[in-house]
UniProtKB/TrEMBL annotation:
Taxonomic superkingdom: Eukaryota
Source organism of this protein record: Rehmannia glutinosa
Coiled-coil residue windows: none
Keywords: ATP-binding, Kinase, Nucleotide-binding, Serine/threonine-protein kinase, Transferase
Protein's UniProt name: Protein kinase domain-containing protein
InterPro entries hit by this protein: CR_Ser/Thr_kinase, Kinase-like_dom_sf, Prot_kinase_dom, Protein_kinase_ATP_BS, Ser-Thr/Tyr_kinase_cat_dom, Ser/Thr_kinase_AS
Length: 373
């Protein structure tokens, strides 16, 4: 009898503990062991109920808010769009890939929150926003001299070098662009938004995957064949460097009376020996030779044939040291028109070198359009 009562008591206690745990989970959300778990209420208070005035940006899967935790720490809070399967994948991917990755040029993921339908990522807060807000378009928030722009390019290259060549397994970011490079109080760049990132084991040459990314930054072999390598990030970095130097968006806009991509215009100026015409008019003083070198490095990064593009460690060396570039090795870039059609100076022979015989239509595409400011 006593044994029976003891057994019943144990069952009741377990049920009580389970109910208590469920109540706590309903309040705070299920735990994700890889990172710090914030409660929904904690983040709601930190952002003043996700007040619009605290909005500091918007990504492909949700708005980003500035928040202040109880201890005074400033954070960037990113709720993902409710009910979005793609947002759910981004959420889990980001936690899985960067929860334990630390580098001065990578945005730090501080934690997350899972509460009912809510999926929220919490990052370190960076005072000077993203490159596109600080630099691109007519309403610039910050005046960036050449020294700061050089630091942005080199720091971003250093972060990508770490992802590509120092981590095991390596990481391909897949969405390097101006809005994903954030600036801290000292204007040091940090790569953010790893929702599209892919782990890249050492024993494979490429990953066949659906196409995702942003118009103007996508490498031609990736769009045509869906074959992803780290050279896709190198291509995107090249476009980003041209944006930093020129203060112009990578997307289609009016250059010299015609609608062109920034990369298309840069190559034309290179062929004419007029690369300095690309430099941002707001840059009052800058070292001509160094700025030209940066633009030529960008053109090496965006060559149509992926195998001709340098590794990010080589890019970092070319940017940070006054090295003489072998321009005889430089070939035309590859880029795409809005319809996805291959454009630019590519011949059929050059296209075949990229080993992308599959048609674009055989791969699902998730592409963000960039609107020039």
């Amino acid at each position: 009898m006593s044994c029976s009562c003891f057994g019943a008591s144990t069952v009741l206690q377990k049920k009580h503990d389970k109910d208590a745990h469920q109540a706590k989970e309903d309040e705070e959300g299920p735990s994700i062991a890889k990172t710090k778990n914030f409660s929904y209420n904690e983040l709601r208070v930190a952002t003043n109920n996700f007040q619009r005035t605290n909005k500091i940006g918007r990504g492909g899967f949700g708005t980003v808010y500035k928040g202040i935790l109880k201890n005074g720490t400033k954070v960037a809070v990113k709720p993902l769009s409710a009910g979005s399967k793609q947002g759910e994948r981004e959420f889990l991917t980001e936690i899985d890939i960067i929860s334990n990755v630390k580098h001065p040029n990578l945005v730090e993921l501080l934690g997350c929150c899972v509460h009912g339908p809510n999926r929220i990522l919490v990052y370190e807060y960076l005072e000077n926003s993203s490159i596109d807000r600080a630099l691109l378009g007519p309403k610039r928030s910050i005046k960036l001299d050449w020294e700061r722009r050089s630091v942005i390019c080199i720091g971003t290259a250093r972060g990508l070098t770490y992802l590509h060549e120092e981590l095991v397994p390596r990481i391909v970011h897949r969405d390097i662009k101006a809005s994903n490079i954030l600036l801290d109080k000292d204007f040091q760049p940090k790569i953010g938004d790893f929702g599209l990132a892919k782990l890249f084991p050492d024993d494979i040459t490429h990953i066949s995957t659906k196409i995702a990314g942003t118009t103007g930054y996508l490498a031609p072999e990736y769009v045509l064949g869906g074959q992803l390598t780290m050279k896709a990030d190198v291509y995107s970095f090249g476009v980003l460097t041209l944006e930093v130097v020129s203060g112009r968006s990578s997307a289609y806009t009016n250059y010299g009376g015609a609608q062109k991509l920034l990369l298309e215009w840069a190559w034309e100026l290179h062929e004419e020996g007029k690369l300095l015409d690309l430099v941002d008019p707001e840059l009052e003083e800058f070292p001509n030779d160094e700025v030209i070198r940066y633009m030529k490095v960008a053109l090496f990064c965006t060559q149509a044939n992926a195998s001709r593009r340098p590794l990010m460690s080589q890019v970092l060396e070319m940017l940070s040291k006054n090295v003489k570039l072998n321009e005889k090795q430089l070939t035309p870039p590859g880029f795409f028109e809005g319809s996805g059609r291959l454009s630019g100076k590519l011949s059929k022979n050059k296209l075949s070198e990229t080993s992308t015989s599959q048609q674009m239509s055989s791969f699902p595409i998730t592409i963000t359009q960039v609107t020039p400011r």
